[in-house]
Amino acid sequence: MIIEAERSCLLLVDFQGRLAPAIAEAEQSVAAARRLALAARLLGVPVIASEQNPQGLGPTIDALRDLPELVVAKTSFDASRELELQEALDEERDTVLVAGWEAHVCVLQTAFGLKRNGFAPIVVADAVGSRQPANRAAALERLARHGIEIVTSEMVIFEWLQDCEHPRFREVLALIK
C-alpha cells in the first residue's frame, strides 16, 4: 500500500516536555517527527497532536508545539477514544501516520484503537520512543504482528511526494538533507 498525502493525517502522540528526559534517544525521535510534520504541512497533510494528562506531563515540546493544527488533551492511553480526536479525523483521510512517545503504551494503544475504528494506522518507527529500548522494540514487533505497518519518516515523505517532479519536491527534500 502506497501512502498517499491526500489520504493521510499525521498524529503526534504525547511528545511532552516532562517525558523527554526519560525517553531513550528522544532527540532522534523528535527530529524525525519534526521532519515529518514539516513535510506534512508543505504537502497539505493535517497534523494533530495528543497530550497525555497535560496538567501533569506538560505541553507538547517546543520543537513540535507550533506544528499541529489541533492538540487534543487526553487521559486515556488510546487517543482514539477522545471525542475531539474522533471528530477531527476524516474518513477521506483514512491513513493515520502515528509518531510519539511511550511506544509500548500510548502509541500502541492508539494504533490499535484507530484500526478498531476503521482507520489504517501506520507507525513511523524512527519517530517513536519509549523509556526503555526493549519496550519500543516489543511494541513495534507486536504492532507488526497485528497487521499495522511499520515505516520510517523518509519512506512516508517520499511516498507522499510520489515523484521528483512534485512542485514541493525541493522544499521537502531540504528537510531530509
From TrEMBL:
Highest taxon in the source lineage: Bacteria
Residues of the Isochorismatase-like domain: 8-154
Pfam families: Isochorismatase (PF00857)
InterPro entries in the record: Isochorismatase-like_dom, Isochorismatase-like_sf, Isochorismatase_domain
Protein name: Nicotinamidase-related amidase
